[in-house]
Amino acid sequence: MRWSVEGYTFPILKILLEEGEEVIAEAGAMMLMKGVDVETIQIDSEDSPWYKAATEAIARKLFTGETIFHNKFRGPGELWLTSSLPGQIEYVKLVDDEWIIQDYSYLAHHGDIKIDLAWKGKRGIALGDLIWLKVKGEGGVWVSAYGELKWLEVKEGEEVIIDNMHFVAIPENIDWEVTKLNMKTFVLGGEGYAIKVRGPAKVLLQTRILPPLAKALARFMPSKWLSLAERFL
C-alpha cells in the first residue's frame, strides 16, 4: 500500500491499493475512487454477535458522534479521502498497541485494528467529556484535526501541562492526569482544565480547537426568536 497527503490546509489523502489491500474510512470521507470496490459495513460486526456490535456502534454514535457505518475500499485501485475539518492529516502506526484518539479526529484505518470506546472515568467528568475512541491492533490510523498537527516528545522525567482540547492522539499507557488551573487563570485567562503528562510519552497535538470557531460562527447565526419575528415581517 502506498499513500501520500497532498495539500496543507485542506489536504487530500491519496492511497494506492494493491490487489486485496483494504482501507476502512468514515462515511462521507471519499472524494474520488478509481478501480476499487466499495462495501458499507458496520465496524466490528464480523467479530461480535450482531446485537453486541449494534450496541457498541450505537454507543459510539451517541457519545462521540462517530458514524455507525463505515465504507470498506478494496484494491486494486486508487482512493482519495478528505477530512470534514480544515486542517492537517497525520498517520499513527500501531504495532500491537493501543492509542486513544479524539472522537472527531478519526478518518480511516488499515490492518487488523479494532475500534472501541475509551471511557475517561473521573478524569472525563472533570473535563466534561466522558468518551474518546480507542484503537488497537496491527496497522495504522489516519487522523485529522482542526489546524496544524504537531508531535510532542516528552522525555523521561519531564512533565508538561497541555490544554485538554488540544489532544488528538495519545498512547493508552502514558502517565497523565487532569489538573485544574487556579481560579484567576480560569476566569480571566480563559484556561480551565488541563492535562498533565509525564514522560516518556509521545503525544499528537492540534494547534486549533473548535469551540472558538463555533462561538465566532454563532454570532452570525439567526436565533429562533429572530426567525419567528421574520415570519411576521
From TrEMBL:
Q: Which Pfam families match?
A: AIM24
The protein's matches in SUPFAM superfamilies, at most eight in alphabetical order, are given as: TRAP-like
Against InterPro entries, the record matches this protein to: AIM24, AIM24_sf, Trp_RNA-bd_attenuator-like_dom
User: Could you identify this protein by its name?
Assistant: TIGR00266 family protein
